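Changelog note: in this version the structure field was regenerated for every chain. One regenerated record is shown below for reference.
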Amino acid sequence: MVNVQDMEKLIEDFMLGDDATLSDLKPYLISEYELKEEPGKKYRFEIRLKPIPQDAKLSEYLKSYMPTEVLVHRHIEFWEA
């Protein structure tokens, strides 16, 4: 399980900077937390069931949510995309 505090630590550890986006952080999240993705399927990250856009600046999310909020890696079906 990944939370906002873990996201902040990864940004610092991999020196991504304040303007890091989810697409910048995604490879590190997947490898560090051993998240599985099947080829050909779509996945997204969510906080409180709200999708995080790939181009969203993560610094805004770090300020907006509590450190213990859970970041969910979820498979999305074609009708949800």
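Spot check on this record: Residues 22-32 form the longest helix (11 residues). The chain has three helices and four strands.
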